[in-house]
């Protein structure tokens, strides 16, 4: 773990020089960033979209024209968006932070938070989550609104590009954001308010677990470099909140075990740091409750790669280092996700320690012998 600490320190030093920048856009002036489609933009396992923003509501003209200043929108084709995070100013300068989500029945559901004039004039963290039935809006990690859908649903995947700072740009400028945007992140599950609070002041670099993050530190590329982004119109880089740059000590170990395309993936919703009482593990893409009544989380001291399968499961934990297990019944929630809270006490003796986890499900549909399992996840306490 000491070698790991030196490596993390070196990487952090190299990144600090470009840190704490964000985007600035001007409403009614054409501008934004476009990204090619990526499956992480529309996870079937729930969703969290978050960002730091400022918003200048005084700059929205009151001329009767409909305006929807947009933080980010997935698919800009009319009536095709999978989700849309924006302000519903409409044609009268209204102040309503909104998140729109298209369910798999093709219905758009909208949750709104009415805010005061100037409420977002300084940097503010905003987030929207969806767990399969409830939409929630957060301001600085505090829930300010929720909406329960009449159905259980995933997010409708209509493909299309992700636009940041602009929405339907067929009407040039009318959906451009009015202010600044930084640290846009898309997670493949609904995070809790505590998880949002634990990371909102952090810039997460190389976070494992299918997180799609855009730090905007003088460039447009996603944190992992897979999505370069293309700007258009007018935008500029400006100073952003002084976030703490963090490289989480989380490492995926080995493959998942499944004979179907739905392969369980184990991840964390925040950083395994001393004193992080919000730390939790989430396994996404597990079998749905109707298929799997039972799951088991295994905990070990050492990872392993390359062992032969057992009951159709590829072990990612050294069996000789197995420390324990936790049984879950039912196996997961309505979307097939399973969650295990693992609060980390502020105990100095834990620094540098680590464990490896792997989640197994009873799954007669996608398991070779009635079982399926996630990748392993090595968690190091920082």
Describe the protein:
The chain has helices at 2-16, 193-199, and strands spanning 21-25, 31-35, 47-55, 70-74, 83-87, 96-102, 108-114, 124-130, 134-139, 142-148, 162-164, 179-187, 202-204, 212-214, 230-233, 236-239, 244-246, 250-253, 265-268, 280-284, 295-300, 322-328, 338-341, 354-362, 371-380. The chain has 382 residues and is mainly beta. It folds into 2 domains: 2-243, Jelly Rolls (Sandwich), CATH 2.60.120; 250-380, Immunoglobulin-like (Sandwich), CATH 2.60.40. Strands 1, 3, 8, 9, 10, 12, 14 and 16 form an 8-stranded antiparallel beta sheet that branches. Strands 7-6-5-4-11-2-15 form a 7-stranded antiparallel beta sheet, with no helix packed on it. It has a 5-stranded antiparallel beta sheet with strand order 18-25-24-21-22, with no helix packed on it. A hairpin with a 3-residue loop joins strand 8 (124-130) and strand 9. It is globular, with a radius of gyration of 21 Å.
